[in-house]
Amino acid sequence: HREHVGGDFDALIAADQRIEPRDAMPDDYRQTLIRQIAQHAHSEIIGMQPEGNWITRAPSLRRKAILIAKVQDEAGHGLYLYSAAETLGIDRAELLDRLHDGKQKYSSIFNYPTLTWADCGAIGWLVDGAAIMNQVPLCRCSYGPYARAMIRVCKEESFHQRQGFEILWNLMRGTEAQQAMAQDAADRWWWPALMMFGPPDTGEAAKGGHTAQSMAWGIKRFSNDDLRQKFVDMMVPQAEKLGIVLPDPDLKWNEERGHYDFGPIDWDEFWRVLRGDGACNAERIAHRRRAHEDGAWVREAANAYATKQAAKQKE
Ligand code: 3HC
């Protein structure tokens, strides 16, 4: 346990060391981590809804078993991340209230509907692919509990992405209708997946962003645009392998840059969905609130049991 306040934090960050829960830290650092880790956890549990919608309609027992495992993993990632947030001195009940009251966000990607089975493939391949791109650097985040939670989460995410790729791989080798279904899903999920990395680093939409401060604190290791570019560079060859045409006519390899150039992102859509005007915002929060209310008896029972256990220990 490090006694020293203030200077020690700066020295640890300057030396690219870990900050642990009992270390002195600036309140802004604490609040930034509570905001990011809580919203990450909210994204995981809200993210259970789009795919959960297909568990009863998966095309085979094998697909159903894989999807159940994935949705359960997302719940586990959420619980893991709420636990990491609680090391910063806030209770998950408070964080869930903030989610339910719209005071905290979840990833906008989950406000898009899952219209066909192919969407489960596109989500695994694109959304979990983007999540991995974003979460691998977080394994080196300066805040210890968050970084350690990410190591386990990333291992499970790679299974999520591979099963999504395999769903699309099978569909693209199926009937014309199945190929069209896979292409349609990629068309609908590609641009929202690019938005997952957050607003651009420059220009109007970058206003009020946290990137500079988060990078100074070693929370963010790459800027939003850098990670987005790495994601595009990784996905284009995979789309070619699948035989899927990504819905961006400007997508082209740029030898000079050593990256793929890609078209403009519709940031108006991004901010519109963040403001609550996406296809599924109301449904996602209503479902979440209902699940929370339905789960009240479990929380009461767990608390009653914990109180009894504590009383027993005192006897
Ligand atoms: N959806 C919703 N809000 C978003 C967003 C998105 N895709 N991207 C950015 N924002 C919000 C930010 O939260 C911030 O708003 P706030 O101040 O109210 O929190 C504002 O837009 C400005 O964005 P910044 O880039 O400046 O904010 P950050 O520095 O927090 O960076 C981030 C945004 C890159 C998402 C970062 O918070 C992060 O890395 N979070 C952890 C990863 C995460 O949350 N991933 C979400 C998906 S999880 C998932 O997909 C699970 C998988 O298993 C399916």
TrEMBL record:
Listed GO MF terms: phenylacetyl-CoA 1,2-epoxidase activity
Keywords: Oxidoreductase
EC number(s) stated in the UniProt entry for this protein: 1.14.13.149
Highest taxon, organism lineage: Bacteria
InterPro entries reported in the protein's UniProt record: Aromatic_CoA_ox/epox (IPR052703), Ferritin-like (IPR012347), Ferritin-like_SF (IPR009078), PaaA (IPR011881), PaaA_PaaC (IPR007814)
Pfam families assigned to the protein according to its UniProt record, in alphabetical order: PaaA_PaaC
Protein name: 1,2-phenylacetyl-CoA epoxidase subunit A
Higher taxonomy: Bacteria, Bacillati, Actinomycetota, Actinomycetes, Micrococcales
